[in-house]
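re: ur question from yesterday

yeah so i grabbed the chain u mentioned. its 142 aa long if i counted rite. heres the sequnce exactly as i have it in my notes:
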Amino acid sequence: MKITTFLTFVGSQCGKAEEAINFYTSIFPNSEIKRIQKYSDGEAGGTPELIKHGVFTLNGTDYMVSESNYNHAWSFTPGISLFVSCNSEEEIQTLFAKLSSNGGQIMVPLDNYAGEGDYGFGEKFGWCGDKYGISWQLNLTE
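ran it thru and got these structure tokens back, copy pasting raw so excuse formatting
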């Protein structure tokens, strides 16, 4: 059995999936776009510019992606997030800055925890949303 995270870009995020996966694969090591299949002209659910189904890898973990121009009653929520365990101060600072920039939002500022207020994850933790609506939790696990 294999479980894979599937990201569906709808509403205001529809049309941004390819840009998003290009961004993600550029900032995480050991990452690549494995496959992108676009909708055919006239096919229900999308247009030839939109991703019907795609697979990409971030640091060795596969993710699936799709876009739909139907009027869905849902979108991304911070209640589901991608948790990133970082190995260095530089790595967590860089990723947090890139993911929360250009229209992203900081939900929990990146901060050090020494006993008091420790979330129990590690030495440093932050939570942000990127400009595509995906939520990220970053944790320093030195």
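noticed a couple things. The chain has a mean pLDDT of 92. also Residues 89-100 form the longest helix (12 residues).
anyway ttyl
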